[in-house]
Every structure is written in structure tokens, then in C-alpha cells.
């Protein structure tokens, strides 16, 4: 019964779309009862970037995977239709990647977010894992898995992102050097392809689809379920910050910590361009005054943030681990401090910053962010490039710099990394541009500046690749993928031959 109802509603929409598209024919919400399948909403044309706003013609709020499959089956069978479809997780993209101008946005959060945890028994082979909807948020998975004393191994800094959204990109944070990105910690996926086929895939079953979708920018299919690897969760985390006034020593210490995966559980680093930046990044981690260097002594500092898991078995174990780490470091004495917090609070630290920014009206503002993977050989030159192009004393937002290891990434996935076998730095220039201090012209200037930086950083001597970016043209996309472009195109032809999916990325025009 429900199936028939849903199919009828989708058919109605498609027929109207086929006739009317690209005109914006549905301007007001349409009530389809409790299934609430089709309506337009403002949220589907807005993302965290707040730079591009592309209204769709309609929004699908699926109640099951079948709804998504039906829609894509219908669209791929309709030779007259030119409708595109974008999955929207939490909409935390910067450049409209989850938008679909005049197309259909599928709001993935409407899928039932049941999370099933499998805790491995002592005598059982295999792993503990969670089966979770592609539209669920990482914070929901954390809350549920902690009830079993378990948690995923690899994280993003912010947890209010969807499982399907981060798996379509990579998913990185301070655990990546140790466990790889989130896309290296997935055991199995359910995917609805651009042709409407619902396929369960894994590294050994329909593996081409599995690897295509991971880091695949939403181009090959919609992730409706993911099986995420879990491990024992620590009770608490000992969380450190150490300061530097010398970039070379900062980098050297980061590389030292990467070489100690048995001791260090989390490693990030950031530039501290001004006092305000230090305060705003310390909301979840307040610094005792004497532990923070003064800006009268230097114009810029660097900070390493690392953490050690505390399973509360024997307190001395953590202390000994910390001592082994810190005695080898060369931070600016005496500027180091630590706190001990619950594992949940540690992972959820950016939420506190979000709340503070929201309270000051500074969260829902434009975010012209720039994220780049920079090979070790280019990191110093890239740092100079950043400093030459930005006025640090005015800068609002964090500038992250921390190392990851390429060998923790599976090269079969669609994710793009620089062409190097060595260590890679992720650099995140996470700038806010609140309209009160940055006009539309100023915002456009930042976007142009970012393009300049990307242009210079893509040259061979720096060898950087963008992360989470929308490329301005097909030529840029080809150069972004480099040697993997042909594989990416072949995967598109196989799983979404009409290029229905992921129009917001601006890679493939819809085939009619
Ligand atoms: P959306 O913006 O909704 O979608 C992103 C892309 O994925 C789109 O192309 C969309 O069509 C596609 N997509 C969404 N759901 C699915 C699905 N189920 N199946 C197939 N395709 C899908 N990233 C990191 O790696 N590390 C971080 O530490 C980090 N921190 C962040 C902090 C903040 C405050 C913000 C705003 C972003 C951060 N990000 C980080 C970036 C984030 O991982 C990406 O923007 C990610 O895409 C966001 O997930 P989302 O659910 O909001 O995706």
C-alpha cells in the first residue's frame, strides 16, 4: 500500500518535472500527509558555506531506501527527463556540493536512523561494527556506540556531519595519521546507484562500486547504510596543547608524534595568528594564563594539540605514556598545558565552539574555507604562500596544519591525494566572513585570494591538492584527478551513465 502511494507521488512529481523543468514550478510546500515526500524548503538551497544558493525544484524526504531507488529508477528510465538529484546529508558543504539547481534534493536525515551495534565476542573472529543509515549524524553513532563501550576509530573534528556526507569526501581529523580517514574504516555499504539499483558492496563484493563511492563526491550512488568499524572506547582523554614560535620546530615535533602511533592517539596542529584566535579556539579547552605565550613576544605562534586515551585501568600508565612523548618534544618552554575530559566531550569539542558562535550570531555566516593536502616537501613554501596572501592579525577562524600518512588511504577509493609517497599535511584555512565585517565584495575578494593560493600551490614544487572543493571547470577537475581521471569517468559511466547524481559538484553535465 505504502509503496503504491509513494510511487504515485513520485510519479506526479517526475511528470511535472519532465514537462516543466527547468522552470521553478513548486514554490510552496506540498502536503503529502505523513509520508511527506515532496516539498520545497529553504534549507535545501543553503549550505554551511553560504556563498552559493541553488534552489531545487523539489525535495524528497524518503522514508525508506526504496523511495530513493524508485526515484532514480524512474529518472534513469525516462529519456525525456533532464532532472538531476543531490543527496543532502547535513548540508555542511562550502560550495553548494549538496545542492541541485532546478533538480531534486534528497534530504537523507528523513531515513529512519536506527543504529545497530555488533559487539564482537571474545572468542569471535572479525570486528565490532555499527550498521548505520547514510543520513545519520556521527554524533548519533557516537552516542549509541558508547552505550556498548565502543566507538568508531576515525573522526572528523565536528560530529554534526552525516555518515554519507563525510564518506563521500574522506573524513579526517587527528586520528587519521593512526587509523586512516573515515573511508578507510568502512566494512560494507548499501548504495542506490544512479540507475536506481540497490547494491550491497564491500571490499570483496561489488568492490568497484564500494571503492568508487568512498571519496566519490556523491557521483556514483547514494549511501543508504554504512557498516562502520568500531573499537573499545576509552573512558577519558588526556588532551595537551604545546606552543612554538618556530615553524620548523613545530613541523619537526608533529612528525615526531606521527612516528609514535603506539603512544599518541590524536594529533593536530594549528597556526595561532592573533590573541582572539587563541581565545576562540580554547572554548572547549580553556588555557591557564601562564601556559599561553604572550603576543608581545611574537606575531604568530604555532600550537600542537595531541591526546592520549585513558582507559582508567592504571593511572600511572597514562602518565608514563605522556612523559615518553613530552620529553622528546621541543616546544617553547614552559608553554604546555593539559586537561582530562570524557571521551564524548573530547570528540564533541567543536560543538561548544558552535554554541558560542551561534550565541553571537557568528555561525550562520559565509565561510570561504580553503582545505588543501600539501606534501611534506612543499609545506614550508605553502606556509609562506599563505602568510604572503593573508593579513594574519585580522584573520577570523582557525588555520589547521597537521600531518597524515598516505599509506593509511586505500588508493582504490575515489579520494584524491598529492602524488607523493611521503607524509602529507592537511591545511585548513577556516575563515569566517560575517557580513558585519566582511561585505559581499570582501567575500568575493577572499574567494579570489583562495583561487590564487590554489593556483600557486598546485604547481609542481608544492604539489598540493584541494580537499572538499568544487573546481571551477572541467579542465580543473581533470587536473585535480590527474592520473585517476579516466578511472573516475569510467566509474561514472558504469554507475550513473546519465549523470543524474551530484550536480552541485559541477563535474559531469546531465546526459539527456
Ligand atoms: P553534505 O554537505 O550534505 O554533502 C556533501 C556531499 O556528499 C554532496 O556532494 C552530497 O551530495 C554528498 N552526499 C551527502 N550524503 C550522501 C549520501 N548519503 N550518499 C552519497 N552522497 C552523499 N571534514 C573533515 O574531513 N574533517 C573535519 O574535521 C571536518 N570538520 C568540519 C567542521 C565543520 C564545522 C564543517 C561545516 C565541515 C567540516 N568538514 C570536515 C567537512 C565535511 O566533512 C564535509 O563538508 C561533509 O561533506 C559534510 O557532511 P554533510 O553531511 O554535511 O554533507
From TrEMBL:
A Pfam family per the record: Cytokin-bind
FAD-binding PCMH-type domain ranges (all copies): 52-233
One example of a Gene Ontology biological process annotation: cytokinin metabolic process
The UniProt record lists the keyword Acyltransferase: no
EC numbers on record: 1.5.99.12
Keywords for the protein's UniProt record, in alphabetical order: Oxidoreductase, Signal
Signal peptide: 1-22
MF (Gene Ontology): cytokinin dehydrogenase activity; FAD binding
PANTHER family reported for this sequence: CYTOKININ DEHYDROGENASE 3, GULONOLACTONE OXIDASE
Annotated protein name in UniProt: cytokinin dehydrogenase
Lineage: Eukaryota, Viridiplantae, Streptophyta, Embryophyta, Tracheophyta
